[in-house]
Amino acid sequence: MNKYRTHTCGELKKNENNNNVILSGWINKKRDHGNLLFIDLRDNYGFTQCVIDKENKNFKSIEKLQLETVIQVEGKVIERSKETINHDIPTGEIEVSINSFSILGKTKELPLPVFTDQDYSEEIRLKYRFLDLRRKKIHQNIILRSKVISFIRSEMEKLGFLEFQTPILTSSSPEGARDFLVPSRLNPGKFYALPQAPQQFKQLVMVSGFDKYFQIAPCFRDEDARADRSPGEFYQLDLEMSFVEQEDIFNVVEKLFGKLFKQFSNKSLVFDKFPRIKYEDSLLKYGTDKPDLRNPLIIHDITNIFERDDVKLDIFKKLIKSGSIVRSIVTKNTKDKPRSFFDNLDKWAKEQGFKGLAYLTIEKNKNIEAKGPIGKFFSEDSLKEIMKITNLEPGDSIFLSCGKKNETEKFLAEARNKIGNELNLINENNFAFCWIIDYPMFEKDEKNKFKFSHNPFSMPQGDLNNLDLSDPLKILAYQYDIVCNGIELSSGAIRNHIPELMYKLFKIAGYSKDQVDEQFSGMINALSYGAPPHGGIAPGIDRIVMLLANEKNIREVTMFPMNQNAQDLMMNAPSEVKLEQLKDLNIILKKK
Q1: Residues 388, 394, 395, 401: what is their CA dihedral angle, to the nearest 10 degrees?
Q2: Which residue, 31, 204, 360, 578, shows the most beta carbons closer than 10 Å to its own?
Q3: What is the C-alpha separation between 202 and 190, in angstroms, rounded?
Q4: How far apart are CA 290 and CA 225, in angstroms?
């Protein structure tokens, strides 16, 4: 190949037996067997076992080398005996007998081991990320990420999309998160914003007459870190289409994801056509708009049962009178579970800050009866009614929670996942996608004022010429999320391309016409010159790769992530800047 190597460390096979080769790479492991020294040489492509005899003049020199020293070896390929073949690596049928070697790159003492994927402190891993990335698992994750992005690009082009790049320096806009601001040297006192998403620009692409756009887009949001969200920056597959309805977007994404997840994972897709679940139904059945459909447990509302005179659970009745609801989860064939199973779930609920998790089990002897701490408070007729509503059968158990709607939904969403895991109901070898649709256009904030619940540029549902704006909370939008295994991959919407309607909707959220014109001048102006109906979506690349790599933390699939405090420990960012730079930007720092 060149002076450094004739082959990579991942390609030699037994058909190369007796050939002289040159390899270069890192010393991954050394094993000293007295008369023989074995070295696992590693590069990006794999491992090759190299061996040197004690009689070789280079033996002592190689023996002293530290792990992760970069070396070049020259030697002969030798076929291994059957009992020494390593079936775990592609080069396991051969080894290279070293004749000579040279050092290409020395190393200092390592701050973390590279030859193992054992857990290590986040601070050390991020400070020495270039070493962390040499480790097998995370190295493979980053290669997977590259292949996924390449595959997406290819498939999008096959689907007729064109790739465009949108600006990184733009204006600030209220999209729900804090902007990263960039001061302008040439325009003193003014600032650019890094885009939270290319939202306005991709809509302007449609107004410009292009039909299908996509981009692997960098996005910047000054948000706190979470396991599934990096602080600072992330990447998304941004796409937009003209002259489309909601189902057209769904069809494109389902085709892409179907191929993508089959190509890069051995797991099965539960649904070829992803279920469409209304937002309100999702909150009712799963307690969340990010349901894990691998879990078969369903939540039922049984509030009305407690209006009956033959139900004597007075504490629930009092709570219901003050506005609370009762919702329940049925578990099938759990009558033989030990008492500890139920009590531990109740204990877990209290540890999460909730009041507990009431339960009972249905038995049928001569009559329908309920066993458990609250069983005595229900008559046979009331139990039959619960069984009818929840599909409860003898031998099943039911867990109940009573509280305010939002709190109860949130708690039972967590309880549903907890119980599903406890009962081993969740098949880890599946991907279960779904669409959450029919989001409300508006919601109320803590000050009881209307605000957009989702994307402010979305198209409302209904007769646009006679849209009833008298009760904003009843207005549904063509907004949708795509969810997989309980993880939201993206939000999207059919866009509002009608300026007059946009002014009306923004007015409900407290924006005057002048404010809309000022904050969204480019968008409003463009939409006034003949805009097509259009819509799009932007699935997160990081979360897609996280699912495919079976990782729980997004930092495991990001090449150079920041820590929880949005700091780059490797490059020491953010950092202080020189006074001269601040003067150039007309900025004075004021200490708190």
Answers
A1: 30
A2: 360
A3: 24
A4: 19
**pLDDT, tens digit, for every residue of 315-366?**
999 999 999 999 999 999 999 999 999 999 999 999 998 889 999 999 998 8
Strand partners, 37: 32, 52
pLDDT at 175 over 70: no
* Residue 579: how many other CB atoms lie within 10 Å: 10
On whether the CB atoms of residues 289 and 411 are closer than 8 A, the answer is no
Query: Can you give the C-alpha Rg of the chain in angstroms?
Result: 30
pLDDT tens for each residue of 205-229: 999 999 999 999 999 998 887 767 7
- How far apart CA 366 and CA 175 sit, in angstroms, is 61
End-to-end CA distance of the chain: 60
CA 555 – CA 562 distance, rounded (Å): 8
**Could you give the angle at the alpha carbon of 582 between the alpha carbons of 577 and 587, nearest 5°?**
130
Tokens of 326: 């009762």
User: Tokens 């050092």 correspond to what residue?
Assistant: 103
Token reading at 131: 């070493």
Over range 402-424, report the average pLDDT.
96
The single residue listed with the structure tokens 């980053």 is: 142
Question: Which of 551, 533, 530 is closest to 542 using CA atoms?
Answer: 551
Q: Where are the alpha helices (DSSP H) in 444-556?
A: 499-508, 513-519, 521-527, 541-548
Give dist(CA 392, CA 398) in Å, integer. 8
How many angstroms from the chain centroid is the CA of residue 35? Answer: 51
For the stretch 92-122, pLDDT in tens is 999 999 999 999 999 999 999 999 988 889 9
- The residue to which tokens 């109320």 are assigned: 444
Q: State both tokens at 316.
A: 């629930």
Q: Residue 52 and residue 60: Cα distance in Å, rounded?
A: 10
pLDDT for the residue 390: 97
Contact in structure between 301 and 280 (CB atoms under 8 Å): no
Q: Which amino acid is at 336?
A: D
Check if the beta carbon of residue 227 is closer than 8 Å to that of residue 555: no
pLDDT of residue 275: 98
Is the whole model's pTM more than 0.85, yes or no?
A: yes
Please check whether residue 587 is in contact with residue 187, taking contact to mean a CB–CB distance below 8 angstroms: no
Tokens of 139: 């190295």
Quote the tokens at residue 39: 């070295």
Residues linked to residue 49 through DSSP beta bridges, in sequence order: 40
Extract the tokens encoding 492.
């999207």
Task: Give the DSSP letter of residue 275.
Answer: P
Cβ neighbours for 488, distance < 8 A, ≥ 6 positions apart: 289, 290, 481, 482, 543
pLDDT bracket for residue 53 (50, 70, 90): very high
3-state secondary structure of 145: helix
Instruction: Answer yes or no: is pLDDT of 82 > 80.
Output: yes
- For residues 491 and 481, is the Cβ–Cβ distance under 8 A? yes
